[in-house]
Write a structure and sequence with these properties.
This protein is α/β, with parallel strands linked by helices and about 325 residues long. Helix content is about 35%, strand content about 20%. It contains 12 helices and 10 strands. Strand 2, helix 2 and strand 3 form a beta-alpha-beta unit. Helix 2 runs parallel beside helix 3 and helix 2 packs across helix 10. The longest helix has 22 residues. The radius of gyration is 20 Å and the shape is globular. The two termini are about 40 Å apart.
């Protein structure tokens, strides 16, 4: 259960680092964007933020980064990002102990994803509204299309999952609404969030049997809200369809692994503009955990009748899969 008394001591924050580089912009019209990441995802977050700032040069932003720890290198690059674009960045290093009894179904998953459940309580002295974004996103246009949405009294706005995902998720979770949203992007009204006690309801799922969920925080958020949110168009949280404003790189194949399409190439473009190192090689690393990426490349090459590439990818798929199996013994 959520312990308000414990929260009020330090808001679960171990350390807060500020880079306040706002200059020449209207400080009373700041757009607040929040992320929750671990140290391994600072580069991806940096690319997402770079895409937002490059496409919205006339706007003032406060970027809130909630994490469980950060290296000096990533902190330095975050400071570089703040200085380059003359914006405000806050890094919150969080105490993860209050989140330890939330379930983890997938071993490589991090509990930092549960930090979004307390963001409204931490950010309410600074703003009445903010945009939460996953780190595997790109913004390719005017972000105010989203941030200016009228929430109509709802605690937040989000896009629906695909019809297939909605059918599976609502059935698995026994949702009565028949609705299921993706919480990778949420425009949040803090007052309405607090009024509906969403944090408190969210924390009531601590210690629940992991087998009752198919995922992590998104399942809990959907069970708490049961469709009572403002649903927005999937162009604000979508794939590579024409007209998409916010690309979301779902699934196992990420643009920092390999370049398969124009959206992946665009992600690499914004990486080049960020303080983080570029990735000129469009192919996945030749390491065992990326064997599946070579299988996908092999299948794509077969479809395109690119036989030499197909054989090359088949070789690496086979070698890396064998190496993975040997390493697991």
């Amino acid at each position: 259960m959520f312990n308000q008394e414990e929260f009020e001591k330090n808001q679960f924050i171990k350390e807060k680092i500020n880079y306040e580089c706002l200059a020449g912009k209207a400080a009373d019209k700041i757009i607040h964007i929040a992320f929750n990441i671990n140290d391994a995802f600072f580069m991806q977050m940096g690319v997402t933020v770079t895409s937002v700032l490059e496409n919205n040069p006339d706007k003032a932003f406060a970027i809130h980064i909630f994490c469980d720890g950060v290296s000096k290198e990533n902190l330095d690059k975050t400071r570089e990002l703040a200085e380059k674009y003359q914006q405000i960045f806050y890094v919150y290093i969080m105490d993860m102990q209050p989140f330890q009894t939330f379930h983890i179904k997938t071993r490589h998953f991090s509990r930092v994803t549960y930090l979004r459940s307390v963001m409204p309580k931490i950010l309410k002295p600074l703003t009445d509204k903010y945009l939460y974004m996953d780190a595997d996103m790109l913004c390719v246009g005017d972000i105010s299309e989203i941030t200016d949405i009228d929430l109509q009294g709802y605690p937040f706005a989000a896009a629906s999952e695909t019809p297939q995902a909605v059918a599976y998720k609502t059935n698995f979770l026994h949702q009565t609404s028949g609705k299921h949203f993706n919480d990778g992007l949420m425009l949040i009204d803090i007052a309405e969030w607090e009024k509906e006690q969403i944090t408190e309801k969210f924390f009531a799922y601590q210690g629940a049997d992991p087998n009752r969920f198919s995922g992590h925080d998104q399942d809990i958020m959907n069970l708490v809200l049961e469709g009572e949110i403002l649903f927005i168009d999937r162009r604000y949280n979508g794939g590579s369809d024409k007209g998409t404003l916010i690309y979301h790189f779902y699934g196992r194949n990420k643009p920092w692994h390999m370049v398969l399409n124009d959206a992946d190439a665009l992600w690499r473009h914004y990486l080049d503009l960020s303080p983080w190192d570029s990735m000129p090689d469009p192919l996945p690393p030749k390491t065992p955990q990326h064997y599946f990426n070579y299988k996908l490349l092999m299948e794509r090459s077969w479809q395109k009748k690119e036989m030499s590439n197909c054989l090359q990818y088949l070789f690496w798929y086979t070698v890396l899969k064998i190496e993975l199996k040997i390493g697991m013994k």
